[in-house]
Each structure stands twice: as C-alpha cells, then as structure tokens.
TrEMBL record:
InterPro entries: cNMP-bd_dom, cNMP-bd_dom_sf, FAD/NAD-bd_sf, FAD/NAD-binding_dom, Ferredoxin-NADP_redctase_2, RmlC-like_jellyroll. Residues 28-148 form the Cyclic nucleotide-binding domain. GO terms for molecular function: oxidoreductase activity. Pfam families: cNMP_binding, Pyr_redox_2. Residues 1-22 are annotated as: Disordered. Coiled coil: none annotated. The keyword Cell division does not apply. The keyword Oxidoreductase applies. This is Thioredoxin reductase. Keywords: Flavoprotein, Oxidoreductase.
C-alpha cells in the first residue's frame, strides 16, 4: 500500500504518532476478511475494469462503494496546484469511501484503477442496506471513514485554502464554519505566510478583498456568507420541496441530533435543518467532562460529529447552513420557509433550535463582535490569543470550561462574574479547578464597563459592583458566556411561548400527556428552547430521544 505520510515517517526513522490516522493503517485502511467480503458481495456485483478507469470524480454526489478483489485503486487529491496527485493506493481486500457515503454531499476526492482490477461495486442504495444488515462490517467501515476524514483534515488533503488576516472577524467566521463542519482546509495569514502572497498574485486578488476561499476548482470566493460557502463546497444536500417528511428537526444541537438518531433508526423519514454546524452551543465547548460514558471527557465538536454521523448512518438527512425563516402551522403538513428561499414540508416537527448567545450591554460591544469578542473557546480561538491575557465573562459551566481550557495556552485568564460566587451556577469539579489554577483570577461581583479599540478590541475595563473600583488592562480577546436567549423568532406566533420567549410545553402549555407537546398538535420542543428545561447536554439528549415516541403516537393517530 502506498501511503505517503506513513512511509515518510518509517523511512526517516521518526516515531509513529498514534494520533495520526495515516499512521494507523490497520484501522484507517483495513482489510476485510474473505468471509466478510463474501457477505458484502451479495449486496453488489463483481466487475473487471481496465487500468485508468474512473470510479468516481471529486464533486460527484451519491458515489458507489468499491472493494478490491485483485488489482489496485488510486485515490486522488485535487487540492494541489498542478495535476491531481495520488495520495492513497488501495489493494486486495481494502475498500473505498469516507463520510460522504452516509450523506448526499459532494465527494472530496476521485478514484480510479491503477492497473486492471477486479472489484465489487456496491451501488449507493445497496450500500445503505449493507451497512444496516452487516453490523460487523459497518463498524469497520464507520471507524475507517471517520479516521479518513480526520486524516484529510490533519494533512490538508482535499482542502480548500482560506486566506485572510489572523484576527479578521470574517476570516475567523469562515475558519470556524469549516472547522465545525469537518471540512478539510488550510489557513494562510496574508501578513505572515509567503505562500499567501503567492496565491494572491496567482489569482490577482487584492488585500482589500480579504478574506477569500479558494476551492479545489480554483474558484475564488470573496468573503462568502456561510450559506454561500456551503453551497460552493457541496456541503448542502438537495431538498425536495414537494416531499412530505415524517418529521423535521429544526436545530442540530444535542437534542436535535438525538431526536434525529432515534427517529431515523426507527424508520421515520427524517430531515434536520441547521443554521451553521452540528452541535449547537454545546459544539463550541472545549471539553465536556460530566457526560455519561466519557470518563476522560470529550469536546463538544467531537460529540456532535459522532452524533451527526450516527444519524446519517440510519438515513437522516442534514441540511446544513439553512435557516428556518418562518412556518405555516395552520394546516398539516406543516410548511417551513427557509431563509434565502425554498420550502420544506412535514407531518410532525421537533423544535430543537436552542438559543442564541446573550450580549453584554456595553457601549461599542457590537463593533467588536468577531474582532476580539468571542462566544466559543475551542482550539481555534485559543490559538488566536496564545500567550496573551484574556477575559472570560460568565459563571456557568460553559464559562468554567472555557476558563480552564484557555488557561493552558494563554498567559492569564481573568474570569468576570456578577454573582458573589459560583456555587449556584457551576459544577463543583470546575469550581475546584478554577480556584486551584494560578493562571485564573476569579473576579466576583464584577462586570465589564468599557471596551476600547480601533479595528479590533485592544483594552477592557471592569468595575467592582460594591466598591466602584475599576481596572483597565490591554486585553484583546474576551469570551462572553452569560447564557442565551431562545431562538424562537421564526415561529411567528404559531406556538404559545412563556414570558421569556421559550416554547411552552406540557402542563405549561395547558396540556396533559407528553411534557414535550406544544400548543400545536404535531409540534414538539426539546432542549434549551423548551420552557423549564434543564440546560445540560445530557438533558437535551434525553429529551430528544424520548420525544420520538410522542411523534410515533401522533402519526399513528393521524394516519388511523
């Protein structure tokens, strides 16, 4: 097998990196046993193809699945400046594919035969039957597909190029979108990377047009919106406006993804609509340590990524970077209107749209959003402020996790909390870590009073509530985690809301029976958007899984 990164390490005598999927060939590019191949073959047909035969091309949707019986398949990367390059060669008993086999997104790579080859071709529809029926083979494939995508991201294979200034708000927005959606990309700083200048000269791009994304087709996208970028990269799956789904889930946070997994696994025609990326606010968490089954913790993005793949494995479709702008709930099927045009229809609806970040009431706050003011503390944001002092505002678990995470890479973390202590709002294990860390200063009964800067934030002032004493420090990055407001504006008066705008369900909506039922039959709400819900990842996951039984009961009664 020709696997460049692994070969390079072995030839130079370097120590193998166990976190690199390309060094874990047995899992990333496994070989099926003859018995497993015999079972898989019943879902496809054997073919013998000449050397150089194209199996699929980068950009195609709905590609087939291939197992090598004899010969060799080359996997090609189109992200280089010159002709496509072969970066993987698959031989006897190995198989093609990565995560796009579980969805209808564009393939990131191409495949062709290197020599005359005897293969098993499994058509796309039959691949889903294979994955459902042969669970041991599906487990091997699923692990391999995830590792292959991680490998492409790590090594910049099939990658687009993002060029911009390090602290530019739109560049950060695009980088965050690509990262959270697991799309391979390289980031070049126009002020520091010589290669960035070469790209700009080659494509005749001026610095005034920053940031730009250059895709593998050498198409230049000038500061695209998230939706435009998703469309250009083939992240958006096609949606049939005439199709009536059994259930549509609005929001791909923990609650929405759990609902999608259970609904799809139980045979319901399931569509998930998400405005930015899977995970919701939980997806921006650096580490969740009190979620059942992960004793060493897991990042919110990793948890969301696994849940997304799991939902797609069972047949759920995800419409990413699509906002719901309104709803017609006066008739059934319900009609959802999408931002930018288009409609979708469904017999039942699960609202898991979560909440939007709350903002500080400070002068010039909006001006610094994306230019020093952040709502997530992941590895990407930590790198932006490495070695600097930062401020974290908030006293909940999200703020605590952010402070602990940022303390590892920054010079110091100033934690600003309006309350007298953290006991009533934060988990005990986080409080212990914050108080024990010499790199975190907890400032209670304190609030942000002033922000200063030019194009981006450069100084922050905070004031103690009782003494009135203020302090100003030259700090360029502030992480605001002070709770969230419900994302219910798109409901247009369709449902009963509580005084704070959360969706009233169960007894709060004057109903008996399901605690997730809303004032409109056939519409349910779970997770943070639901009035009275516990704002925890585990609670949202529980609600999302349980609500599917209510969906079944409603559909059975409706259909007689």
């Amino acid at each position: 097998m020709n696997l460049e990164p692994a070969n390079a390490a072995s030839e130079t005598g370097l120590t193998v990196d166990p976190t690199d999927p390309y060094e874990r060939e047995a899992q990333t590019f496994p070989r099926l046993t003859p018995e497993q191949i015999a079972r898989a073959a019943t879902f496809g047909a054997e073919e013998t193809l000449p050397a150089g035969a194209a199996l699929y091309e980068r950009g195609e949707r709905g590609v087939d699945f291939f197992i090598v019986l004899e010969g060799k398949i080359e996997i090609l990367d189109h992200s280089e400046d010159c002709a496509p390059t072969v970066f993987i060669a698959l031989s006897e008993r190995q198989f093609t594919g990565e995560l796009n086999l579980f969805n209808e997104r564009e393939a990131l790579v191409s495949a062709r035969t290197a020599v005359e080859s005897r293969l098993i071709r499994v058509k796309r529809a039959d691949f889903r039957r294979l994955a459902s029926a042969e669970t041991d083979i599906a487990e091997i494939m699923m692990r391999a597909f995830i590792l292959r995508r991680v490998g492409m991201i790590r090594h910049g294979r099939a990658a687009v190029v993002l060029i911009g200034q390090t602290h530019d708000g739109d560049k950060i927005r695009l980088q965050r979108f690509l990262t959270r959606n697991g799309y391979p990309h390289r980031v070049l700083d126009v002020d520091a990377d010589a290669e960035a200048g070469e790209f700009l000269d080659c494509f005749e791009i001026g610095k005034a047009h920053m940031p730009v994304v250059i895709d593998v087709r050498h198409q230049v996208l000038h500061n695209p919106s998230n939706a435009a970028l998703a469309d250009a990269l083939g992240l958006t799956e096609t949606i049939d406006p005439q199709r009536v789904h059994d259930v549509i889930v609005v929001g791909a946070g923990p609650g929405g993804l759990a609902a999608a997994v259970y609904a799809a696994s139980e045979g319901l025609d399931t569509l998930v609509i998400e405005g930015e990326a899977p995970g919701g606010q939980a997806g921006t968490s650096s580490r969740i340590e009190n979620y059942l089954g992960f004793p060493t913790g897991i990042s919110g993005q990793a948890l969301a990524g696994r849940a997304q793949v799991q939902a797609q494995k069972f047949g759920a479709k995800l419409a990413i970077s699509r906002e719901v702008a309104g709803i017609d709930c006066a008739r059934n099927p319900f009609v959802l209107r999408l931002a930018g045009g288009g409609e979708v229809r469904t017999e039942t609806l699960i609202i898991a749209s979560g909440a939007r970040y709350r903002k500080l009431d400070v002068e010039d706050y909006d001006r610094f959003e994306g230019h020093g003011v952040h709502y997530a503390a992941t590895a990407m944001e930590a790198k932006l402020c490495e070695g600097e002092e930062v401020v974290v505002v908030g006293g909940g678990n999200s703020a605590g996790q952010a402070a602990v995470f940022l303390a590892r890479q920054t010079a110091h973390v100033h934690m600003i909390v309006r309350a007298r202590d953290l006991a009533s709002t934060m988990s005990y294990y986080l409080i212990e870590r914050i108080l024990a860390s010499p790199r975190i200063t907890l400032r209670t009964q304190t609030e942000i009073s002033r922000l200063q800067g030019g194009d981006r934030l450069s100084a922050i002032t905070w004031t103690h509530q009782e003494s009135g004493e203020s302090k100003t420090l030259a700090i360029a990055n502030m992480f605001v985690m002070i709770g969230a407001a419900p994302n219910t504006g798109w409901l247009n008066g369709c449902l009963t809301l509580d005084g704070k705008g959360f969706v009233a369900t169960g007894a709060a909506a004057g109903l008996t029976g399901s605690p997730y039922a809303t004032s409109q039959p056939g519409i349910f709400a779970v997770g943070d958007v639901r009035a009275g819900s516990t704002k925890r990842v585990a609670s949202a996951v529980g609600e999302g899984s349980v609500v599917v039984s209510d969906v079944h009961r409603y559909l059975e009664a409706k259909r007689g």
